[in-house]
Every structure is written in structure tokens, then in C-alpha cells.
Write a structure and sequence with these properties.
Elements: E1 4-8, H1 15-25, E2 29-31, E3 35-36, E4 51-52, H2 55-63, E5 67-74, E6 77-82, H3 83-91, E7 95-100, H4 102-112, E8 116-122, H5 126-136, H6 141-155, E9 163-166, H7 170-185
Parallel strand pairs: 1-7, 1-8, 2-7, 3-4, 8-9
Antiparallel strand pairs: 3-6, 5-6
Helix pairs in contact: 1-7, 5-6
Length: 194
């Protein structure tokens, strides 16, 4: 199959919920587990949510060219996509689905070219996004402020994706995304974009 689906969005825009729905509804997809250097959050599992690496290990893997893409998302906080993870999924004859920030998504889009469909999930507004982050109650005010600054930055890249889904009504956003991805995976490679 050797196709890839790239889902990007600012934190709190709904990308994780939409990716979970895609994985439930489309059996030919498998989630690409990213590597990162941040600490585990409550309930997360190494090798399921992320491959949690030390900064030293991450940098050694960069030197060995083991990443499809990587970046320092926040100072001292690295995220990336291991080539071995992508190959593991393709060896199972499934399409890879990535859940990454906007810069990582564009890097993956460039790497995969026509093999990938890149979808940006946009919140209905920046205010709605901030409210969602506050409702989560998983981060302090300083962390939310940092995420909001990054969200504004990420939103500036939305137009560079193959398509944008506005997540103002979750079920509709899920249905639109599922339809787009299904058509792409069943096509010869042309993207159905809007």
C-alpha cells in the first residue's frame, strides 16, 4: 500500500479524537508512533502513545539518520518519526497515519509526495481553541500560553496542506475526514482536495 495520511493541528483542535475515529473506521490504517523527549503524561504508555527517548538517545538517532523527520518543537523538546516505525506498518500492508504538528506534517508531506494526503484540522477560532485547552485541565496557565503561541504559528501553515477540515462540530469533522481518507486510500494516488 505504501501510502500515508498526515493529520496536523494545533494542540486542542481535535486531531487525536479524529485520528482515533479514523483508526476505528478504516481498517487499512495503522498509527505511526512518534518518538519524543518529553516526559510521560498520566495514562501514557511507552511504545503505544510515543517512543519516549532521552535527549541523548534522540540526538544519536538523528546522527544515524533514523528519522523521516524530526524537530525541536519547544526548546529541549524533540519530536520525530522513525523510519523503522513507518516500515513496520508498510510491512503489514497498511497505510501509515501520522498525528503531528504543522511543521512536522509539512516535512512528511514533502518526504512522501503523492504517496501522502496531508490534512490540517482547524479549530473554529483561536478563542475556542484556548477554551478547549483550559477545559482539559491538564496544564497550567504558562503551559497553555505557550501552546497558544505555538497554535498561532501552526495556523499560519494551514493553507499549505492538501485540505483543511474545520472542527466546529466534531461528528461532521470526523465524517468529512473519514470520507476524504477513504477516497485517497482507494484511489490510484490522486487527492480529492477542497
Amino acid at each position: 500500500m505504501n501510502k500515508a495520511i498526515i493529520i496536523s493541528a494545533p494542540s486542542g483542535a481535535g486531531k487525536t479524537t479524529i485520528v482515533k475515529a479514523l483508526l476505528e473506521r478504516i481498517t487499512d490504517l495503522e498509527f505511526s508512533i512518534s518518538a519524543c523527549t518529553r516526559a510521560l503524561r498520566p495514562g501514557e504508555v511507552n511504545g503505544k502513545d510515543y517512543y519516549f527517548l532521552s535527549t541523548e538517545d534522540f540526538k544519536q538517532r538523528i546522527d544515524r539518520d533514523e528519522f523521516v523527520e524530526f524537530q525541536e518543537v519547544y526548546p529541549g523538546s524533540f519530536y520525530g518519526t522513525l523510519k523503522s516505525e513507518m516500515q513496520r506498518i508498510w510491512d503489514r500492508n497498511r497505510a501509515v497515519i501520522f498525528e503531528v504538528d504543522a511543521v512536522g506534517g509539512l516535512n512528511l508531506k514533502k518526504y512522501f509526495g503523492d504517496q501522502a494526503m496531508a490534512i490540517f484540522i482547524r479549530p473554529p477560532s483561536i478563542e475556542a481553541l484556548e477554551q478547549r485547552l483550559q477545559i482539559r485541565n491538564t496544564e497550567d496557565t504558562a503551559s497553555i500560553r505557550k501552546r497558544m503561541n505555538k497554535a498561532r504559528f501552526e495556523l499560519s501553515f494551514a493553507e499549505k496542506f492538501d485540505t483543511i477540515i474545520v472542527n466546529d462540530q466534531l461528528e461532521r469533522a470526523i465524517d468529512e475526514t473519514v470520507a476524504l481518507v477513504s477516497r485517497f486510500l482507494n484511489s490510484s494516488g490522486e487527492k480529492d482536495v477542497r
